[in-house]
Amino acid sequence: MSKARLVLVDDDDMLRAVLAGNLTEAGYETLQFGDPAEALVFLESAEGKMDLLILDWRMPGMTGLDLLKRLRSSGVETAALFFTSHNDIHFEEAALAFGAVDFIDKTRSFAILQKRIELIIGRAGLDGDASPPLCSGSLTLDAGSHSVHWRGRPIELTFGEFRVVSLLVQAGRDVTYREIYDALRGENFIAGDGAEGYRANVRALIKRLREKFVAADPSFNAIANYPGFGYRWLEGG
Amino acid sequence: MRARQLRLVSRSLTGKFVVLAIMFLVVPVILYVKFAEVDTERRNFLLHSLQVEGRLAAEALEPALSKASGKALLGAAKAVQDLANDQVHIKLLLRPVGRGDSFFLVAASPTIETADLDRERQRLDETGVLSRLDESCAGTGPLAVQYAGSSGKDELLTSMSPLHTAAGCWVILTSYGLEDLAGSSLTRPFSEAPEVRFAMVLYGLIALLAVMAVVGTLMDLRSFAKLARRIRQGDYSGNDSFAQVTVIPELIPVAGEFDRMVGTLDASARAMREAAEDNAHAFKGPIATLTQSIEPLRITARADPRSHRALEVIEHALERLTNLVHSARRLDETAAALINARLQRVDLARLAADMAAAFHRIHSADGIHVLAKGAAKAWVAATEESLETILENILDNAVGFSPKDGTVTVTVSTDSDSVRLLVEDEGPGVPPDQLESIFRRNFSHRPAERPSEEEGTAHFGVGLAVVRRTVEMLGGHVQAENIPDAGLRIAITLPAA
Question: What ipTM, to 2 d.p.?
């Protein structure tokens, strides 16, 4: 099997250099660009298939999102993930809405990034070979295509969020903060967030999840909160 | 306290309005009673003077009537004409001796047509005045009898003066036309006088204006309060403004100031969010580079124990740094979110009981008990999330300080306008001079004998800072005190909803 080809676009020279080194060391063929405009020119005319774009958000001249939009409009459909210091939900929503498959905080360790890359690249190879989608009331979860639909409308979720929704729906009972946190460990979350609380982390994630569902359906209230304990997915069968 | 209440009442617009309304109601009553008294006096006086006038007229006619000849009658008729004037009408009637009790109208001024004489006499008869005179032609009293005069105009009989002569019983009646000033002022209630009517209308207008001014101001203040409450509870759109709800033009500048204040508040919430995002973004860049740079070192340091150990220290420090950046961001974000959060009525008593139960379930294995007691219901204006954050951080803190087999007690109590939450532990407490500091960001006072935590996680002292900030954003306050020989008590007061 040939090496997966990754394109790293980040204007931070130091970070780009070490990260590209790590990716190469991990066995990926890595192309790196400090200037998004150069990356655009290269990708639009590139020969051979790229497997994944790793994009920074804030860059001079063009944001990562602008780059992604322009690539999509010129027919480049390579999967993209954002590896960025921004974690405001608006950035994430915009990124996912324009076809990014994941949104990872830049302070996450290389191990986490690597795992996510493998999931994305590996999943691409698994297309058509997925387990049947899980349906629960108005919700459809397709682990194969990693797609989520609520009342027929698509909901853009990150890997971590997808995992939490699956956990809640499949549990069919109250799920503790701890369980949700454990499901996320090694994902988009900080391990051992200290006394300030893993609950705050979990709550922030649930808040984002609710916002995403409510954006698609204002009457959404399927995630019930049990204060001090955890959450429960309400709409069964 | 009492003086303050009195001062408040004396300054209250509603209070003044009530006083004003009472005055507007009482003043007309007082005026009416007073005017009515004066009017009665005036009427009596006028009537009296009219009667005197009538008597004088009778006395003036007496010499002429005493003669009782045909010529005398003519003389009497002329005397009647002389005595009468524009206002005073005089009628002379005679009941001749031996002709029963019927009267003849002998003369009148203004003159009555001969054809109408009998009808006029009948009408006078109908008033019943004449029947007051007895056989001896005596007996009279003050009169104020209205009747329809010959000219079709109403008249007021004001005096009746009998005079007994050889010819019979003479009666001199004086009357005033109702349309004349004297007549009208005698019969018409003073309240119907045009000038009084005018004054009443003016008074009504003044009252209406005063009521409109006060009611308008009160209504504006109410809409101000309603909008302010909606803004505080986050239940408003960008289109709502104080200037729009204001009806009174003079209040529009005030409303404008309020709008600018809200605008500034919104802008500062936005600025806080942006600053939180920007700060985090700025710190995360170097952290990311460090995190990625560790990766190759991990492989090379594997062989050398010292390098390996150094790498672990770096990783640990980096993790702490990352956590600091994340929690600082979250703190700022929480504060900004609460500035225009949509507040609801939340039952703090129920939430506290639920959370105490959840904490008890988690920590009873370590021998730490968490109990809730107090009020069954305690409604506060908040978001469930903000209250959960508050409770969670205090409970974390209390449990963290609790000795084995210690008990953390959560008590909720209510009074008329506030809800109080006490969380008491049996830990070592805090040195008195540091009681204020525990709510400072990044202040940590964790006793050495219970070093933090199973998973090697660190305590950054953000928890209680979050509590204070959240409580203050909800309009409440928090304080800490040592319970003598027992532990620490955190007391939170929130406005009741």
Answer: 0.72
